[in-house]
Write a structure and sequence with these properties.
It contains one helix and 38 strands. It is mainly beta.
């Protein structure tokens, strides 16, 4: 049977609308974008040229498809952290550079930087500008909720190695940048509370030794995890991006034995640390002046047969905590996994998600970071050893995870490090 002229016109119109909305018979519309950092070895010893793989996220299936022009350059060496400005127009990548082995001062053989990229149609990235933090070896970035300030964590502060009153400074620092609303460019915010010996305002905010990660809370606190002495350094976030020392300048995190802190996750007034030395989750509540109080019940054991927890993530409803485990103790199946825990709405206590023998859930080898899509349907992990991304569907009632309907593994580039996910550009 042949279609009438009006029928052919109507069908063409329907196809045109479907294409315009990004809808096809094989999936649904694009609900957001994901960018995954990766490294590729180059000729220079110790250097890893940075790349960013871009994906579009399908609403119906959670499937990932490559953004046009992907992979993109990270604008530096050894990219390790990535954040997106609210609204999705700008992405910020921390390139760690190549640190000096056993440094005696703030120096690096290849200097790290912060690359600013604009987001175009279908998640394409275009380099805009580059900024430098005040210390050496930047390792993490945190964007303020308003998108007006970017906080960059440096492993070594500018004062690293200097001796004052017989004490050698081994601390890291936070560099604060103001973010331009129209261009996304970064400008330095100086420390209004502390001056250097010459009477000039410091250009950084010092934290503890060997910082690896930081997170902010809804209550205006910014916590850094200092792996060098198993401490947390708390700052209060004030006006104009200023960080103010609280009455408790250093918080000692305790475990049954000396912990090896590997990450921090926040959920309102709750803070969860992962302890790789003891395979524990250490839950705290934020008190006055950004103090941390041990949650009733204390530390929580990770799930059986897991080991080496490296990253914690609280999903959007605040009901479930997911922990990335880089290895396991099952000699027959020593996979990297995700442990799923339920957060009690009244007490904030953790308990394993029950009713699923697959918990902990198998993922790609060597997981580094984790994120959730804008509609809170899907969870993704970047897997450094495997060089892949693993996707899971979230059961929002139970917290259980299941494989995506059309395959759960997607290729990255080189050794994947961290990822970030954004909704469509506003």
């Amino acid at each position: 049977m042949t279609l009438s002229r009006i029928g052919r016109f109507g069908m063409a119109f329907v196809v045109s609308v479907a294409m315009g909305l990004g809808v096809t018979s094989c999936g649904g519309r694009t609900i957001g974008y994901m960018w995954v950092l990766g490294t590729q070895a180059n000729a220079a010893a110790g250097q890893q040229s940075g790349q960013i793989v871009g994906y579009k996220i399908d609403n119906f299936t959670g499937n990932l498809t490559s953004a046009v022009g992907s992979p993109f350059t990270s604008g530096g060496t050894n990219p390790v952290s990535i954040v997106v400005k609210p609204g999705g127009r700008y992405v910020y990548v921390v390139n760690k550079g190549v640190p000096t082995t056993n440094p005696t001062s703030c120096s690096a053989s290849v200097v790290g930087n912060i690359q600013v990229l604009s987001v175009g149609g279908d998640g394409t990235l275009t380099p805009q500008s580059t900024a430098n933090s005040q210390g050496c070896t930047p390792v993490w970035a945190e964007m303020s909720a308003s998108g007006d300030y970017l906080y960059v964590l440096d492993k070594l502060s500018p004062a690293y190695g200097k001796v004052t009153n017989g004490v050698t400074d081994l601390n890291g620092d936070i560099t604060v940048f103001a973010v331009a609303a129209d261009t996304g460019r970064l400008s330095l915010v100086t420390n209004a509370q502390v001056k250097d010996p010459s009477g000039n305002q410091l250009t950084y905010f010092e934290v503890g030794p060997t910082p690896i990660m930081m997170r902010s809370t809804g209550g205006g606190c910014l916590f850094t995890v200092n792996q060098g002495n198993s401490t947390v350094f708390p700052y209060s976030v004030g006006a104009s991006g200023q960080l103010t020392l609280t009455t408790n300048s250093t918080i000692q995190v305790a475990g049954p034995t000396t912990p090896l802190l590997t990450s921090i996750a926040t959920n309102g007034a709750n803070v969860y640390f992962t302890d790789a030395a003891n395979n524990l989750i250490l839950p705290y509540q934020v008190g006055t002046s950004c103090a941390l109080n041990t949650l009733t019940g204390g530390s929580v054991p990770n799930l059986a047969l897991t080991s080496n927890p490296q990253f914690g993530f609280v999903e959007s409803t605040g009901s479930f905590l997911y922990i990335l485990n880089q290895s396991g103790t099952n000699s027959n199946n020593a996979n990297s996994t995700v442990s799923a825990f339920k957060i009690d709405s009244a007490t904030s206590k953790l308990s394993p998600v029950v009713g699923d023998v697959l918990n902990p859930y198998s993922i790609g080898a060597g997981p580094v970071c984790m994120g959730e899509d804008p509609t809170s349907q899907y969870l993704y992990t970047s897997n450094g050893t495997a060089g892949t991304v693993t996707g899971k569907q979230i059961n929002k009632q139970t917290g259980q995870l299941s494989d995506l309907a059309r395959g759960a593994t997607f290729p990255s580039t080189g050794h994947a490090t961290c990822l970030v996910i954004s909704g469509n550009v506003q």
